[in-house]
């Protein structure tokens, strides 16, 4: 499994983000490209310990049992539910959101595993920095595939 802490994997993701355009259309889902970038940026905030969504009852109940889906080699399902606080529905500016996400990815990678959040994921619960690194890559890969890059 690829890991965002690996410089080459980070570069791959950044290059794919650069291939997106304002006119990129989703293969599935409701978000436009700028909303997707803002969503991914908000997810980075969680992994960096800058945002702390509350755990929902379903995550508390089953999160620990299904959390390998976050960091294993199997692709994420299309149209999965997301953390309500990072569901982006308002209009966003494409270039601003793209640059913001790229900066957060670089910061996360540069900060290394030792600076990853220890706060539990709102659905999956406690994750190691290694699990976060794989999960961040997998989440970004999922959304970039959503837009064909």
TrEMBL record:
* Domain of life according to the entry: Bacteria
- Organism taxonomic ancestry: Bacteria, Bacillati, Bacillota, Bacilli, Bacillales
Originating organism: Virgibacillus oceani
Which Pfam family name is an example for this entry?
A: DUF1569
Question: Under which name does UniProt file this protein?
Answer: DUF1569 domain-containing protein
């Amino acid at each position: 499994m690829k890991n965002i802490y690996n410089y080459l994997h980070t570069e791959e993701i950044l290059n794919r983000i650069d291939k997106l355009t304002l006119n990129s259309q989703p293969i599935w889902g409701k978000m436009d490209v700028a909303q997707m970038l803002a969503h991914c940026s908000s997810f980075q905030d969680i992994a960096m310990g800058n945002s702390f969504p509350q755990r929902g009852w379903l995550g508390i109940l089953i999160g620990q049992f299904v959390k390998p889906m976050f960091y294993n080699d199997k692709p994420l399902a299309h149209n999965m539910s997301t953390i309500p606080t990072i569901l982006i529905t308002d209009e966003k500016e494409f270039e601003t959101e793209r640059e913001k996400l790229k900066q957060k990815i670089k910061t996360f990678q540069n900060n290394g595993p030792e600076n990853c959040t220890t706060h539990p994921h709102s659905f999956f619960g406690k994750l190691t920095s290694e699990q976060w690194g794989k999960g961040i890559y997998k989440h970004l890969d999922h959304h970039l595939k959503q837009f064909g890059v």
